[in-house]
UniProtKB/TrEMBL annotation:
Keywords: 2Fe-2S, Dioxygenase, Iron, Iron-sulfur, Metal-binding, Oxidoreductase. This is Anthranilate 1,2-dioxygenase large subunit. It is an enzyme of class 1 (oxidoreductase). GO terms for molecular function: 2 iron, 2 sulfur cluster binding; anthranilate 1,2-dioxygenase (deaminating, decarboxylating) activity; iron ion binding. It comes from Pseudogemmobacter humi.
Amino acid sequence: MTLPLTSEPIPRQWDRRGLPAWTYHSPALFDLEREHLFLNHWQVAGHVSDIPAPGDWLAFDLLDERAVILRGQDGEIRAFMNLCRHRGARVVEGAQGKCRGALVCPFHGWVYNLDGSLRGVSRPETFGEGVDKAAFGLKPLELEIFGGFLFLRFRRGPQPSVAEMLAPYAADFQAWQSGNLLPVDVAGWSADLPVNWKSVRDVDNEGYHVALAHPSLQDLYGRDYRDLYLPGGLHVSYGFYGDRPGRRWSVRNYVRHSPVREGLPPHLQRTWAYYGLFPNTVIAFTPESAQFYHDLPVSPGQTRLTGRLYRLANEDRQTRAARYLAQRIDRDTSAEDQQLSIWSNESMRSDHFEGFHLSDLEYGLRRHHDQLRDLLPVMREDHAPPESQIPALNDELLCARTGQA
């Protein structure tokens, strides 16, 4: 299969170690990750089809910050902090919903227009000289749309615009017609794991384990699975299927029902494709469906896996059957990966754990670790520094690197 994207070559000699075990359970490091990895990097929160009409909204919470994405009366989609400017209450509650022309804070009844501006306050005469409506609108957040998917970040950070960053994906997303997807369900899905978020990424960032750990995926595309390493830390995985009927029930019937989509280029025609976004997100496509999923850190030892599923707008009965079968395969795969993440994370606390020794097929894991080390150089320390010294040491290492540059 000839691919339009060219992978960076794997070096002949490279450091096959992973991150040291202490980085998977350090509270001080977790605090640095909150500040320098998650709140200032782009996160996928949904798709334009999740909020098709004025007043429709999506909520997105991450590490004590909370956002609402709202379609205005003018049809524009905007993101705001989900914080009333009066006392900080949530102006929307839940994962998704619809409001009639305005957002009303349930605490004291402050009212916000769908563009985030303050419409009015209850009992305005009790605020002395009054409330300056122009100064008390909902706080806006950065929001970008790429291929129909909604990206936000709580703070400005080192990543460029989404369009610039994901430019290598643009042709594929256009071919998948990702902007025309429709949601499968309302709330999406979630699962909580007793692991550090990096253990989840470690499993998902390599295909070495597919042959043994994922019998359905191996049956479907394991013979011709490829990881591509792109500039900017991007990572694409393609699994090509259809050359064999499949032995397992779900795979055999999926291959039989999976549609041949007109307009897809050859490298996407019978393909499951996974597009990675640093630090914690994947957008995946099959010929009949799409999804995004990400690993949202909750604490050093807890991670919430969440995602949303999408379908084609013109889905027929055969395509719907294929989507159901694909979800069966994916459900089993997710359960298998969750168990692997738990086992891997457990090992990080063992006195006998001596670190990773990575295969060339796990180079994607090393690349991800290198990106983390670049942003948080304290992760290069083989042995855990005292917890109280980790922030200062990280600052010192950053300053030393800047001085050398």
